[in-house]
Amino acid sequence: MGLDEEGTHARVQRQKRDLIEPTIAEHHGRLVKHTGDGFLVMFDSPVEAVRCAIVIQQSMVGRNASLPRDQWILYRLGVHLGDVIIEPEDIYGDGVNIAARLEGIANPGDVFISGGVYEQIKNKLVCGYQSLGDRQVKNITDPVTVYRVLPDPAAVVQARKTHLPIGTLAALGLGAIIGTAGWYWFAQERPAIVRAPAPAIETPKQAPSPQQAAAPARPQVIPDPAPRPAEVPRAAPAAPPAPVTAPVAPAAPVAPAAPVTAPVVPAAPVVPVMISLAGGTFAMGSNDDPSEKPVRRVTVKPFAISKFPVTMREWKACVAAKACTYSPAADANDDAPVTNVSWNDAQQFVAWLSQVTQKTFRLPSEAEWEYAARGGTATKFWWGDQLQAGMANCKGCGEPYNTTQPQKVGSFTPNPFGLHDMGGAVNQWVSDCWHKTYAGAPVDGSSWLDGDCSSRVIRSGSWRNNPDYVRAASRDHYDTNVRYPTHGFRVAQSP
Predict the structure, then answer these.
(1) Structural domain that includes position 57
(2) pLDDT tens-digit readout, 193-203
(3) Per residue in 156-167, pLDDT tens?
(4) Is the alpha carbon torsion for 87, 238, 128, 163 positive or negative?
């Protein structure tokens, strides 16, 4: 705020509108109130509360990655499970107070949860937990058992080796719900990875009360320094447990399922339609965002890429073969793109598809994806520099539009290469590890496989994003082991 009061306020409001409020709604939370630059939310499920927190924090990491350090906005999140008093426009009680206290003692970028939340979620999310022991917090008589959430399984090992004071421990931040607010100027030296600060969460009670989870949070600011290709023919939570009286060792994270090693062939494998591309040289990147710079010439070798994102029907075949562990809702539209899949889930699918077809499938590289998305053009969108209705499935791209799910594949005009939904519909995983810019990136179209490989690149934007995310050069990233409702993928093949 001290550097740019109006700009910072505008960014916080935009984050509330575009990220925080939609994410709360997706995880079935109730936004109780805003508290200045924070907010308080309650949930029926502590699992959904922590999932919501993870999504908010990891999304903030992506947003901060392309900004100078002195423009970072961070959140602290606290999550508690307990009874509350519900009134029409507010909630009260020790449950809210403990959530707020957890948020208050969290480091910027961290999610702190109480022992009650930990007992409910410890075997249900792909993440680790670091016990911080029993902490005495203001205006609460009994000590509160506190855990730090570590979304990256590798972070558990690192946390066990760390001997710094608790106040300076670095952890991958999971978001919860935001409660009390206040700008935090983060001037001291920090570890290399700092995640967005979070709000505090706690659970409310309805009269007579099922328990729910509510959270307060507060943001923090950190200062610092070709011809058209040929188409290939188609082949309600339980009551909180008694408080833990002794520190609990960090729980081992739930490891992502390993790719299938023995072929399992369903009766009728469903193979995506593939489009063969001749390859070529193009200008990759843009000057619209720091993460898309520098623009450089990249030469892509011939390859094939699926005409559509992988569909629910194709994904369900993998689930039926017991090769893919994530099972979508039974009534999901078979012709819609599969959603809510992690990068690790996508790896399971390509391993299975390769086995059942005896052909090698993979995720496209980031360069291959952008080359295919541009379709031989050099404009902001493949159809030009201005938005046009009916070209992409995104928020603000025109009809048809459904707020709850993407349209079925093929609903929108294909690009000049005959590919559908190369922008909008679903975020699409690619093989590359995340880098904040293209400095040092390969120019031969290959995957960039050093850097932060716990986080992989996603492209395309989704039906819930605004048109800026649909640009051919737009890029983002996400942790490989976390599922998110707008994430899908498409497959590629080398000749």
Answers:
(1) 5-222
(2) 333 333 334 33
(3) 445 544 433 322
(4) positive
